[in-house]
User: Which sequence fits this backbone?
């Protein structure tokens, strides 16, 4: 996807990822231009009248009853952006800010916000020029949208504040001038329209969903390698057994495990005569846990899909000329989805850690050496790699505590229930970073276990994963500096190389 047309009907998930991560180009479609022009004309008529309209001829929040004279209404919009650009903390990641810019332009393009086409076009010009507003991490409560983060984006459109260009922070005025972009002069309601959205939260959710597609498939791969390395059985993953509890995610995960383990000489070697009645939960219940996470992902994807075609603002400009206040800026749907995903991510990491622990414990690994070490005692093997993994699992459990239950009233009690969805999205991103590393540790351990099962051979697909890992991470041997190997394995997980080696997974 190299070029995207922003229409009056919204966007899809793939477009957001393409712009945020791959710098795909975006243009404003004619339908969106017409919708925005019609909406802006309604606001212009209202701005010229004495009729009180929130955000057009009044103040904001608890100042909504303060009337603003017609001569000062453009000043009102500039002052709004400047005062609301009050964030603090480290800058938000480039991909998140690009998603925010795109998604705010997307909402304006629906023609329900009263902004002129030039507003969206200037946002798209920043994206095209690689100009990224510097947006501090803290400032959004996820109700009245992502006010502070979006205000920092809007400030850059005015030629104020700071931006990042090629990794260098610069004054926005200089960067816009160099790129030939004319700073915006806001008209009635446009400042409010630029900041009254949940675009940062939605952008982070969409990016998280793309990451989860890779990580959940990888979790099935790492589980399959562990099943082989621990001399487990594939029988619990049978289609007939899975059909007795037909959760879609569970069925997909079990199908992956069956495919991955098909033809495994290791599994076949103990199919008969094994005194064990059943495997531990961390092996046998992998489809139930990974599958439940898949179902949570699918729910969150439905939420994101609705948001991507929704008009998020307040007040809304309706085609019949009405201007109506509403609560569409509230981030509750997104916050709940992000919190659910953080719980799911914590569970997937937790069961992976249990399999890793089993691989390293000689009393439960069915013949593997302690900590998968060569000459255990002199060497510690993967002992401390497991500690690192366990630390990240513990952090993900803390990050699984929901942010969306923690409302904190603001704006003199006008905004007396907020979603905290921005916080939910931020912690979800950290959880996903941890999960990639957690799965990498399991893969390193399980791969070493497979090597130690030689001459028995793994299945063709798990063998292909082992070979891909061995291109970057050496096999068993004396102790060596492990951190670079774990980092390399994590890169393979994040890039999708592990699931590419496995091939054709759901």
Assistant:
């Amino acid at each position: 996807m190299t070029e995207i047309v922003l229409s009056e009907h919204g966007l899809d998930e793939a477009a957001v990822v393409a712009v945020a991560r791959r710098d795909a180009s975006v243009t404003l479609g004619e339908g969106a231009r017409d919708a925005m022009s019609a909406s802006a004309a309604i606001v212009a008529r209202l701005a010229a009248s004495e009729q009180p309209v929130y955000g057009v001829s009044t103040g904001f929040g608890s100042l909504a009853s303060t009337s603003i004279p017609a001569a000062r209404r453009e000043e009102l919009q500039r002052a709004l952006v400047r005062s609301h650009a009050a964030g603090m903390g480290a800058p938000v990641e480039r991909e998140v800010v690009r998603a925010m810019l795109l998604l705010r332009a997307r909402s304006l393009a629906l023609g329900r916000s009263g902004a002129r086409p030039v507003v969206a076009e200037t946002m798209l010009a920043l994206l095209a020029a690689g100009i990224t507003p510097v947006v501090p991490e803290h400032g959004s409560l996820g109700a009245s949208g992502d006010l502070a983060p979006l205000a920092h984006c809007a400030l850059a459109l005015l030629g104020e504040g700071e931006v990042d260009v090629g990794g260098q922070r610069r004054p926005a005025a200089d960067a816009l001038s160099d790129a030939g972009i004319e700073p915006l002069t806001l008209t009635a309601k446009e400042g409010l329209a630029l900041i009254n959205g949940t675009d940062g939260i939605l952008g982070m959710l969409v990016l998280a969903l793309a990451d989860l597609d890779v990580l959940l498939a990888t979790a099935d791969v790492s589980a399959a390698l562990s099943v082989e390395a621990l001399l487990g059985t594939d029988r619990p993953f049978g289609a007939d057994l899975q059909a007795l509890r037909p959760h879609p995610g569970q069925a997909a995960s079990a199908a992956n495990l069956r495919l991955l383990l098909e033809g495994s000489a290791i599994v076949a070697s103990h199919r008969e005569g094994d005194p064990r009645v059943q495997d531990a939960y961390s092996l046998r219940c992998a489809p139930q846990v990974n599958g439940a996470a898949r179902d949570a992902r699918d729910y969150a994807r439905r939420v994101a899909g609705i948001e991507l075609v929704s008009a998020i603002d307040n007040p809304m400009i309706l085609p019949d000329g009405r201007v109506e206040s509403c609560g569409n800026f509230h981030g509750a749907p997104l916050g709940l989805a992000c919190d659910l995903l953080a719980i799911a991510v914590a569970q997937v990491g937790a069961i992976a850690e249990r399999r890793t622990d089993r691989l390293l414990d000689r009393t439960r690994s069915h013949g593997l050496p302690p900590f998968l070490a060569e000459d255990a005692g002199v060497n510690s093997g993967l002992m401390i790699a497991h500690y690192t993994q366990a630390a990240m699992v513990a952090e993900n459990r803390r990050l699984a505590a929901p942010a969306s239950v923690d409302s904190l009233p603001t704006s003199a009690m006008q905004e007396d229930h907020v979603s905290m969805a921005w916080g939910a999205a931020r912690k979800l991103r950290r959880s996903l970073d941890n999960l990639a590393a957690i799965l990498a540790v399991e893969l390193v351990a399980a791969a070493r276990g497979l090597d130690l099962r030689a001459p028995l051979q793994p299945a063709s697909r798990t063998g292909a994963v082992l070979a891909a890992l061995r291109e970057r991470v050496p096999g068993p041997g004396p102790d060596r500096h492990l951190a670079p190997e774990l980092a390399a394995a994590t890169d393979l997980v994040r890039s999708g190389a592990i699931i590419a080696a496995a091939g054709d997974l759901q």
Summary: The beta strands are 3-6, 25-28, 88-91, 131-133, 136-138, 162-165, 168-171, 316-317, 323-324. Residues 379 and 479 are 6 Å apart (CA to CA).
